[in-house]
Amino acid sequence: MKVSIIGAGYVGLVTGVCLAETGHQAICVDVDKEKVGKINQAIPPIHEEGLAEFLRKNVPVRLKATTDLHQSVVETDITFIAVGTPFDGNQIDLSYVREASKQIGESLKDKQVFHLVVVKSTVVPGTTDGVVLPILEQTSGKKAGLDFGVSMNPEFLTEGQAMLDFMNPDRIILGGTDERSMNMLEQLYAAFEDTPKLRTNTRTAEMIKYASNAMLATQISFANEMANLCSALGGVDIVDVMRGVHLSHYLSPKTLDGKRIQAPISSFLESGCGFGGSCLPKDVKALIAHGEGVGCPMPLLRAVIETNERQPQQVMRLLRRHFDSLRNTRIAVLGLSFKPDTDDMRESPAIPIIRELLAQGANLKAFDPAANKEARKLFKDEKFVLSDTLEDALSNVDAVVLVTRWEHFRDIPQILEKVNSKALFVDGRRMLDKRSIARYEGIGL
Ligand code: NAD
Ligand code: UGA
């Protein structure tokens, strides 16, 4: 099938290149000329495992990129909307979705055949039917369900393993009501024959996405609140507590051959300095605003966000146990991306931690295996050194703060020993064994 995808960010580009990989013809559309140029040269505009290889295989035969939205819609059978849906401080910002819908609608005027528009962006329940569909009808002068179709198909990929997730989906949610559109969408995903496909209405599809992310965020804040209590109690380590909790058959059930397996949800019960990223924080906030907007109190999710926003302070608390003042204290912050295996720094807990350390006068270095370039852009006005290597970051410092669980950081105990460092180590993710470093502090310890 011929597919156009509006927005060539994490979701749009991964969708485009993976659909191309499964044999479709895909066009990624973006307003960002630099991104479009890179995709057409098969250069990944983002750090994502496997993306370079898929681009090399599919550009330009099955995948191309362009800034020409109109031509892309005219040339294809299906158009995905995969633009950003940020939180504007009060509610979800649908301006990009509105603009994309308007441009798609105008392009539909020039189409004589049935065309399917699919919302892939995460949007609050009611958006596809109440915002996208009316804009498409107004701007095209055509009738939804008759001249064109509208569906909602949320995306569940996680950054850092986006290609793997897209190519091995756990579920495909098909939201919509008109049979023709639903069949067309299901046909697009024919390559994923073993994946459960759930047909439902658009509002339910939208809500499934929010409920999924809100559940993950809730687990993380729960684990963090338990960790903070362990610290306050003394003599209890959250890592040991969670080891005991994880042994429950709910979290590590027995398979038929008697083996215990760890349920993947356990990886959302790891205490740390808080969740970040372009989705969990903004989606939970948007859901709270949307819920309260329809008169439904959302106290649990409010607490999830509050706990999360306070969590980076735990790192400061641990530092203050060892230094009366952080003025001129030499500190290395390790890990800047919001999670490992990505260069994405959106809402990374490293941001408030770095800002607070600078505000307290610390003499700062930072290092990330992938996000140094991103950090340089983000902190262009702040003064601190971005180290090129982990060894450099760990040399000549009084304290080290680990913020992101990069696998590279497993070598820290050996490196600290090699450089003969007596630095305090604050493990913001409880990643390393507390016995492997002489001066160790960790969240929930
Ligand atoms: P992103 O910011 O990486 O990409 C959005 C892209 O859309 C940008 O490149 C921007 O230039 C482009 N764009 C905006 N308006 C446009 C227009 N009118 N025409 C053409 N291009 C336009 O965003 P993302 O992380 O890919 O997220 C997109 C959506 O998917 C969001 O709703 C997000 O919540 C959801 N989502 C994201 C992830 C993730 O891991 N990043 C996972 C699941 C769902
Ligand atoms: C998340 C969801 O996991 C995806 O299913 C979803 O599709 C996506 O949001 C989305 O809608 O965009 P992502 O943001 O890429 O994916 O990353 P996660 O692996 O969920 O991690 C989010 C944050 O939570 C990271 O900052 C991570 O460090 C933190 N985290 C995770 C914890 O603090 N503790 C944990 O136990 C697990």
Gist?
It contains 17 helices and 14 strands. By secondary structure, it is an alpha/beta fold.
Protein described:
The chain has 445 residues and is of the alpha/beta class. The protein folds into 3 domains: 2-200, Rossmann fold (3-Layer(aba) Sandwich); 212-310, 3-Layer(aba) Sandwich (Rossmann fold), CATH 3.40.50.720; 312-442, NAD(P)-binding Rossmann-like Domain (Rossmann fold). It is built from 17 helices and 14 strands. The strands form 3 sheets. Strands 3-2-1-4-5-6 form a 6-stranded parallel sheet, sandwiched between helices. It has a 6-stranded parallel sheet with strand order 11-10-9-12-13-14. Strand 1, helix 1 (10-21) and strand 2 (25-29) form a beta-alpha-beta unit. The N and C termini lie far apart (54 Å). Residues 6-12, 29-32, 35, 69, 82-85, 96, 99-100, 103, 121-122, 155, 157, 159, 278-279 line the site of nicotinamide-adenine-dinucleotide.
Keywords:
Rossmann fold, six-stranded parallel beta sheet, 13% strand, binds uridine-5'-diphosphate-glucuronic acid, 14 strands, globular, 3 domains, 445 residues, binds nicotinamide-adenine-dinucleotide, alpha/beta
Question: Could you outline the blueprint of secondary structure elements for this entry?
Answer:
Layout: E1 2-6, H1 10-21, E2 25-29, H2 33-40, H3 51-58, E3 63-66, H4 69-75, E4 78-81, H5 95-108, E5 115-119, H6 127-140, E6 148-152, H7 162-167, E7 172-175, H8 179-188, E8 197-200, H9 202-233, H10 238-246, H11 280-293, H12 299-310, H13 312-320, E9 330-334, H14 350-359, E10 363-367, H15 372-378, E11 385-386, H16 390-394, E12 399-402, H17 412-418, E13 424-427, E14 440-442
Parallel strand pairs: 1-2, 1-4, 2-3, 4-5, 5-6, 7-8, 9-10, 9-12, 10-11, 12-13, 13-14
The structure holds nicotinamide-adenine-dinucleotide and uridine-5'-diphosphate-glucuronic acid.
